[in-house]
Amino acid sequence: MQGLVLQLTRIGFLLLLWLFVFAVIRTLRADIASAGGLRIPRYSGGSEKRRRSGGVRGAARHLVVTHGALANTRISLGQQPVLLGRADDSTLVLTDDYASERHARLSRRGDDWYVEDLGSTNGTYLDRSKVTTAVKVPLNTPIRIGKTVIELRP
User: Fold this and answer.
1) Fewer Cβ neighbours under 10 Å: the N or C end of the chain?
2) pLDDT per residue as tens digits for the range 59-118
3) What is the pTM (predicted TM-score) of this model?
4) What are the FHA domain coordinates in residue numbering (predicted)?
5) Which structural domain range is residue 8 located in?
């Protein structure tokens, strides 16, 4: 009788182990599939837009979310800095697990906008470069915070 209980316990433990492995694989597949849908556009200096519209001129007037949970969100820019993060008092509250409470700040200096990382865990990226100091943001250049991508638009 003891041998039967021991054998059933082993089979039960093995079954639980396989259920755990399948749950992990399913979670990884879901994460990979959702990350696969995120395609960060490569910045080409705006030359294509310049050819079509005769040039990209003027200062940024809008902040547009191009990818992520808040895609197609548009914020009008003024003189005030724009705080980005998960905190409730952020200008753009990101519902992104990879964003910090106070992740990054966009601030205006004359007609130019600068992005700076505020000590976030996962970093802020301008085009494909990690932001370590305040960096000038050209128009239509992707800024990536976790799975969220934003751009400054005229």
Assistant:
1) N
2) 889 999 999 888 899 999 988 999 999 999 999 999 888 899 999 999 999 889 999 999
3) 0.62
4) 82-131
5) 1-32
